[in-house]
Amino acid sequence: MDNQPQRTIWQISGGPTARSYTDIFLKYGVGLIGPGDAGEWRSDKDDNEFEGGFVRRFASEVSIGDVFLLRTGISKIAAVGLVASDYLYLNQFDDVNGWDLQQGRRIRWCPLPGEYDFDKLVFGANPTRFARTWDEKVIDYAERFLNSSPTQWQTSNLPELPLEEPVLEAIPTQLQGIVAEVNDLAPLYWERERFGDHPSEDELVTHFIVPFLRSFGWPPEWIAVKWRNVDVAVFKELPRVSKNCHFVIEAKRLGRVWREH
């Protein structure tokens, strides 16, 4: 690579340990960040619409051929990749383990046999979801990796992207009552003079989440509220122990949104 210009190297988060999405990146050959619910990035949009400048830099400053390091912690990476596309808005990734990650690029990833640990805070003590990397140790590692065999992954075919789920043409029958209640109550919840304080998380769990689950046939004994400090835990069978937990739901008080930072 002596005769080639040095490539720009970026780190991109694979998500927190509890809700990692590194496997999605590697399976579909993508690099994704959020927030995505703000819509497709355009140069006339303000950074505040995207919780800062991360999406703008991701969309406008990255070039095809740049290097992405798939970060799994403050000093570890799981894969090295080469950017293979311009910026894309991929709505099929609107819910990745609870994250809205529609801001995307295609990446040719080379997964590592095991996580590589730089043994120091090369990405900073509190690394962001996406940023350019200037650390000399990281740059040296990336360039040596790109020059090491095998190199066929750098030009391999990209995997197929998942299809976007079709939009429901009608609300399922079992949800029509709950949806109607939400439509009636949601505007009222915001009117403090008429309603008072916003409802608590527990109230939203009681009035909406549990009825939602029950409408799909989940029996009450499989639905746990405030189980081991989890707002709602749903089990696939009894007893209600960790190995039988099928999925969990994190409730938020009205007006609060959980984002990745």
Give an overview of the whole structure:
This protein has 2 domains: 9-155, ph1033 like fold, CATH 3.10.590; 173-249, no CATH class. It is 22% helix and 22% strand. It contains 6 helices and 10 strands. It has helices spanning 22-28, 54-60, 136-146, 176-189, 192-195, 201-215, and strands at 9-13, 30-33, 67-71, 76-83, 88-89, 103-117, 130-132, 223-227, 230-235, 245-249. The strands form 2 sheets. Strands 1, 2, 3, 4, 5, 6 and 7 form a 7-stranded mixed β-sheet that branches.
Tags for this model:
single chain; 261 residues; alpha+beta; ph1033 like fold; 7-stranded mixed beta sheet; 3-stranded antiparallel beta sheet; 6 helices; 10 strands; 22% helix; globular
Offer a concise description of the structure.
The relative contact order is 0.13.
Alpha carbon gap, first and last residue? 35 Å
Question: Which ranges are low-confidence, i.e. pLDDT below 50, for 5 or more consecutive residues?
Answer: none
Give the overall pLDDT as a whole number. 91
CATH topology of the largest domain: ph1033 like fold
Structural class: alpha+beta
Q: Please give the domain count.
A: 2
Largest sheet: 7 strands, mixed
Number of helices: 6
Query: What is the number of strand segments?
Result: 10
Strand content: 15-25%
Q: What is the CATH architecture descriptor of the largest domain?
A: Roll
